[in-house]
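User: I'm writing a short report section on ligand binding and want a predicted complex to refer to. Could you take this sequence and adenosine-5'-diphosphate and write out the structure as tokens? A short remark afterwards would be nice.
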Amino acid sequence: MAPVSEVAEQFTELYGHAPDGVWSAPGRVNLIGEYTDVNEGFVMPLALPHTVVAAVSRRTDGVLRLHSADIDAPVVELRIDELTPLSDGGWAAYPAGVVWALRAAGHPVGGADLHLASTVPTGAGLSSSAALEVVTALALNDLFELGLSRPELAVLSQRAENAFVGVPCGVMDQMASACCTEGHALHLDCRDLSIRQVPFDLAAHGLRLLVVDTRVKHELGDGAYAERRAGCEEGARALGVSHLRDVPYAELGDALARLTDEKVRRYVRHIVTDDERVERIIGLLDAGDVRGIGPALTEGHASLRDDFRISCPELDLAVETANTAGAYGARMTGGGFGGSALLLVEAAEAETVTKSVEAAFAAAGYTAPRVFPAVASPGARREV
Ligand code: ADP
Ligand code: MG
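Assistant: Sure. The structure tokens for the complex follow:
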């Protein structure tokens, strides 16, 4: 985490007055349930120790000033009554979008000064954007005493990203950043946003979850996300349900037989089986069989690679190498076409597996990956 006192000092230097407070919000990895959020299904993210830390002060004159220590650009100054969706405001669109979404929902936000620093890698599929939105939403909720709940803040943050920034993401990332708790994975029902904190203390089991950030982002990703979502909607329509979440796993065979489009059939199979894998993994975790979730993770990868087709050679190599080197299971996580993979390994073997993956990437001529452990960390909170 970026040091809280440093961010507060930078704020004071920048704006000439002290912040009213400092807040943080984490990035996340998703253990299982990919693209299921936009099908009103189930997901299971956990918060990372990597966070966006924001020092913020309240203003009442309608001015919004935004600055990031991580971007080489001056303070962005905006008027809150002139905020326009999709106006290509660069990075500032994320926090400005939150102000816009709060105001559009009728919440009295009068302006703010904000300065942030982040340790969430950007564009690595670890949701730096959601962390940025949620930290802004939480700070404004406190400063203007809006009284909104965590799920409400997450939904408004999602709305900022969808309608203001223009990214058609689901609600998982914002819910994870807002609602995760230390030592737990978040079992989230993306239909009614009900949550359950599932104990996920890998160290207590002698295990480790490694994140392999491939540091690649293939172009294909942007169009593919919308295409997959549209394909899922087409599948739901063809099956006469509002969302694919309503196709029971037990009836998957029948459902697939009714679909004529080969591609839509693959998409449906991925979504319905991934929802089932979320349930299966929860059953195993509840039974204390953490090692037992490994095969379901690897199955989830195969489903994303072969049915949903959003993997890429780097992610496949990370997964295959890890499994050959003794991981219990592995999968790509996030939107695909690059970003990160997750490996479940014996803690004592973490170094060996990491070296194997690094060696395999070097041998293939790929960019060296960044490998680090994912420890289930706290969700967004006020630091000072
Ligand atoms: P991800 O959420 O997977 O990291 P996105 O493309 O959704 O990737 O969001 C990344 C964008 O979020 C960046 O391009 C930038 O606009 C914004 N962002 C993330 N972190 C920061 C930061 N520390 N400072 C400024 N902008 C940031
Ligand atoms: Mg994002």
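A remark for your report: Residues 68, 70-71, 91, 94, 118, 122-129, 132 surround adenosine-5'-diphosphate (ligand 1) (CB under 6 Å). The chain has a mean pLDDT of 97.
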